[in-house]
Write a structure and sequence with these properties.
Distance between the termini: 41 Å
Largest sheet: 6 strands, mixed
Bound molecules: protoporphyrin IX containing FE
Structural class: alpha+beta
Order of helices and strands: EHHEEHEHHHHEHHHHHHHHEEEEHHEEH
Helix content: 40-55%
InterPro entries: Cyt_P450_B (IPR002397), Cyt_P450_sf (IPR036396)
CATH architecture of one domain: Orthogonal Bundle
Protein name: Cytochrome P450
Strand order of the largest sheet: 1-2-3-9-6-4
CATH class of one domain: Mainly Alpha
CATH superfamily of one domain: Cytochrome P450
Organism: Streptomyces albiaxialis
Family: Belongs to the cytochrome P450 family.
Shape: globular
């Protein structure tokens, strides 16, 4: 892919009828940068560097033939996210210009939920989510996550190796959601099939099958809760004074699970990838230094799990930070580019030595549509990482960090696999803590030097 040069004049949105698909606004000598495919996935940050040459906004393609303007500048992004008068989230008019089977519609198509509505409708939908989550006590959420985490760890702990994406990071949020929404663990496999299937689908057929599995699960969840309410999110959504219609209820449950699963999976995965390839975190596992919380902040700032989203549509023609935009045109915010505008700390680099990875970021977005579930998401991720590193105290990657493979696609920054090795431990008896299990033979005070020499001998182990 050749680097685009910055345009000499501001990019001007072409004048087309509102019903026609919006072409990507670019001049003939400029290549449109694709935010999908292997090149972008392998090194999105150098793509953002090139896009910044256009100024605060740049033309991109998010799927073949689907153009958008991408905000890469932090101040422009903040201004947009805090100005609901000028910027609408309602995607209906734009959606009418896009093929109905477009792969971006599941993320951006209109539904009666918090994500794609404005004003009073948005406030009503959002309140259902924030007020229901506020009824979950943090210690209960931590305990659910601990149980789920330890159950997952026990499935691979005796093997000495695991793919931490497929076997851990992608499953923790699903199993926790299944409990929070009020279904017994016996249902969790179905939700795993549906949500992980949507994440992993490589063909339209697989995506359709995963979607159908998800709809069937949601249908059964609603049916079960209609018959018998409980102290759970589904029941609280149903009984909320907003009085959601059946369609709205289903859509709100779907958006909460779907908006939560992918980024939480990648928050855990990206943080583990950083921790397990950085000696400063390894010493933490036994003796202090950087903590899982530091790794999470590092990821939020430098490897935002949701990299580009926030579809917005100008409510009128505007000149915004040097670019003419037409009313109704698709504009996305690059949380990843805006957060790393003034530099990025790559895994293992020293900015994190200060503790937090430093600096403001937009990983949760900002303004009225900012993620409403930040603290619960952080608690789930922190607990998941703490349990894994407590049980498998010498865990480390079996491939170097720079050989990890990243998922394709414009919206998320996440790993395909996270292969790790560790000293096998025998699954525990009920009630036995990790400290009294055979894992206590694992050297807990291993030094960075010891770890480095150990890493030379790590390789795939027999199952
Ligand atoms: C328990 C896990 C989570 C749940 C249930 C959840 C739920 C939601 C919901 C319902 C929204 C829509 C809010 C609105 O439009 O008013 C949202 C937005 C958002 N969330 Fe979360 N979220 C979770 C975790 C995360 C994580 C881990 C990240 C990334 C670090 C994240 C980043 C975002 C962003 C960037 C938005 C704005 C998206 C947009 O407007 O396009 N979320 N989240």
């Amino acid at each position: 892919m050749t680097a685009p040069r910055p345009p000499r004049t501001p990019v001007r949105a072409p004048d087309h009828s509102a019903a026609a698909p919006l072409p990507v606004p670019t001049s003939p000598d400029h290549e449109v940068v694709a935010l999908y495919g292997p090149d972008f996935a392998a090194d999105p940050y150098s793509v953002y560097d090139r896009l910044r040459e256009y100024g605060p906004l740049a033309p991109v393609e998010i799927a073949p033939g689907i153009g958008a303007m991408l905000v890469t500048d932090y101040r422009a992004a903040l201004e947009l996210l805090h100005d609901p008068e000028t910027w609408s989230k309602d995607s209906r008019a734009w959606q009418a210009t896009v093929p109905p089977d477009s792969p971006v519609l599941p993320m951006m198509g209109w539904r009666p939920n918090a994500l794609v509505n404005d004003g009073e409708a948005h406030r009503r939908y959002r309140q259902v989510i924030t007020e229901s989550f506020s009824l979950i006590a943090p210690h209960e959420l931590r305990e659910h996550t601990r149980q789920v985490a330890e159950e997952l760890i026990s499935r691979f702990s005796s093997r000495g190796e695991a793919d931490l994406m497929a076997e851990y990071a992608s499953k923790v949020p699903v199993l926790v959601f299944n409990r929070l929404f009020g279904l017994p663990d016996s249902y969790s496999d179905r939700l795993v099939t549906a949500l992980c299937g949507m994440l992993d689908a490589t063909t339209p057929e697989e995506a359709v099958a995963a979607n159908e599995a998800f709809s069937a699960y949601i249908g059964e969840l609603i049916e079960a809760k209609r018959e018998k309410r409980g102290a759970d999110l589904a029941s609280w959504f149903m009984d909320h004074p907003a009085g959601l219609s059946p369609d709205e209820l289903a859509s709100e449950i779907v958006v909460t699970m779907a908006a939560g699963h992918n980024p939480t999976t990648h928050l855990i995965g990206n943080a583990l990838a950083r921790m397990l390839s950085d000696d400063r975190y390894y010493s933490t596992l036994s003796s202090g230094g950087l903590t899982p919380r530091d790794a999470l902040h590092d990821v939020l700032r430098n490897d935002s799990p949701m990299s580009n989203l926030s579809p917005h549509f100008p409510t009128r023609d505007i000149f915004f930070h040097g670019t003419w935009l037409r009313a109704g045109q698709l504009v996305l915010v690059s949380y990843a580019a805006a957060s790393t505008q003034h530099g990025r700390t790559a895994p293992g680099e020293s900015a994190a030595a200060g503790g937090s990875g430093g600096g403001a970021h937009l990983a949760w977005a900002a303004g009225p549509h900012a993620c409403p579930v930040q603290n619960p998401a952080l608690l789930i991720a922190t607990t998941a990482i703490e349990r894994l590193t407590a049980w498998l105290s010498d865990i480390q990657l079996t491939v170097p960090h720079d050989e990890l493979v990243w998922r394709h696609g414009p919206f998320h920054r996440g790993l395909v696999e996270l292969p790790a090795g560790f000293t096998p431990i025998t699954p525990d008896q009920a009630g036995v803590t990790p400290w009294s299990s055979p894992s206590s033979s694992t050297p807990r005070d291993a030094t960075s030097t010891a770890r480095r020499s150990a890493s030379a001998s790590w390789g795939p182990r027999p199952g």
